[in-house]
Amino acid sequence: MTNWLPDLSSGAGPLYMRLADHIETDIAKGVLPPGAKLPPQRDLAFDIGVTIGTVGRAYALVRERGLVSGEVGRGTFVLDRDRPAPAPLQPAPVARSTEAQRAASTAGARLRMDSTAAPDVGQSAVVEDLIVEIARAHPYETIDYTRAWPLAWRQAGAQWLRSGDWAPEPENVVPTLGVHAAVMAVISAVTLPGDKVVFEKLTYSSISRAATLIGRRTAVVGSDEQGCDPEDFDRLCAQQHPKIAFLMPSLQNPTLGIMSAERRRAIAEIARKHNVWLIEDAIYGVLLSEPMPTLASFAPERTFHVGGLSKAVAAGVRAGWVACPAHFAPRVQTAHKMVTGGIPFLLAELASRLVHSGSAEAIRADVLHEIAFREAAARQTFAGYDFASHPAAPFLWMKLPDPWLSATFKKAAANEGVLVDDEDEYKPGRTEQTFHRIRVGFTSVPTRDDALTGFATIRRLFDNSGAGYDSFG
Question: How far is residue 370's CA from residue 351's CA, in Å, rounded to a whole number?
């Protein structure tokens, strides 16, 4: 029954819940009888004027209610409630020896607030449909090594990386296996063992650690509420002669700093003066509704602009792109293959179709809505305490009340079933400076209720300041 068309103009609650309720009501009335096929998600989204993510989330909800079943390649069908649904296959448990760089001893904690992947807004249903399309259209390429890089992949990257008036040329864009792989490909392509890489004093330290593993050295530059300090950057370049700098000018991780246009121009001019390459990590910047001018727009000849889908669409797609200075794309593409082993056709094609179909942008809108709700709840919960937040950012940078220490609080929160990151997770090297802060991510927990529970737990620990003297070893 692909011509079924619900009316969502009335009712309360989010659109996806209204749609799920309409499906349930029409099943109960017999309008959607057992065996009836629900409309394809794209068709229904177009017909009723909502995003594909909204329809996907509604379909997922009615599946959870036991009303329908999804069959890969065929669609979604109403179940006969007089007959029991087939029991889902139970995957074998998977042993995990480590979880990123976090201690394995905390792996059993209930709420992961140490990650900032895009929240669940129903995007898995969209991903499922696209994977089926790709497998049917490219059966051989899907199971083989990637031997060609279609122009559409580069065009998708150029479209996704575009920011304001700046847009890269597709021939200068390299698809990558996520943003981390993109950054490491650039560092590998333009530096040699022993070369220095500049990092801010607080940053996404996985890059500094990975760079150290391949023989590069770390140089730490001073920073303030906007990020990299131009005066200290100039001094460091003159004294230590670094080869490249890794910066996050928009929604910096973990401080949430946003560089002004004037600051970006100054950093670009200093890099040009000292012949230093720039890596501009825009993984969180894509969440801003009013993007700032890119470093690449001020210094296109030396800036590698990097972005991906993990924070705005789906982390599991492992989709990233790097826009290179002219003529550098082949070198970065080769370095990426050497560092990562190559990009799978399925993931690269999936990322391309997500962008070209408009699904990525539609999911991004839903993700931003969910982030804004959770961030507002966090501001309400932590009123009276010192923290940095932004309505488009999926994490908080929180000052700990006295006498809490960052590492001690992390252990205390884990004991209460909540994982957070202490400040050491974001230090690119050893330092005497102490910030007494933690980063709290709130998008990887499955539901809003989970986020609220995590916030309440952290607030309770904040209020119980005497617990900071306890031992959580």
Answer: 22
Closest CA to 116 of 336, 284, 335: 284
Run of H or E residues at 160 = helix 151-161
Domain 135-357 CATH class label: alpha beta
pLDDT at residue 82, rounded to an integer:
59
Q: How many other CB atoms sit within 10 Å of the CB of residue 391?
A: 15
Contacts (Cβ under 8 Å, ≥6 apart) of 182: 174, 176, 306, 308, 320, 321, 322, 336
Tell me what pLDDT residue 65 has: 79
For CATH 3.90.1150.10, the residue range(s) in the chain are 109-116+360-469
Three-state helix/strand/coil letters over 18-82: HHHHHHHHHHHHCCCCCCCECCCHHHHHHHHCCCHHHHHHHHHHHHHCCCEEEECCCEEEECCCC
- Of 454, 287, 435, 445, the closest CA to residue 382 belongs to 454
Those residues whose C-beta lies under 8 Å from the C-beta of residue 267, and which sit 6 or more positions away, are 228, 230, 233, 247, 249, 259, 278, 295, 298
Helix (H) or strand (E) holding 372: helix 359-381
Tell whether domain 1-94 is in CATH 1.10.10.10: yes
Cα-trace Rg, the chain? 24
- Model pLDDT for residues 154-203, shown as the tens digit of each residue: 999 999 999 999 999 999 999 999 999 999 999 999 999 999 999 999 99
CATH code of the domain made up of 109-116+360-469: 3.90.1150.10
User: What three-state secondary structure class fits 117?
Assistant: coil
User: Is the previous residue joined to 33 through a cis bond, with omega within 30 degrees of 0?
Assistant: no
Q: Of 151, 193, 191, 203, give the one whose Cα is nearest residue 173.
A: 151
pLDDT in tens, 43-91: 888 888 888 878 888 888 888 778 888 765 678 888 876 555 444 444 4
Give the mean pLDDT of the chain.
90
- Give me the mean pLDDT over the 436-461 stretch: 96
Q: How far is CA 163 from CA 44, 154, 203, 281, in A?
A: 31, 16, 22, 13
CB 160 within 8 A of CB 309: yes
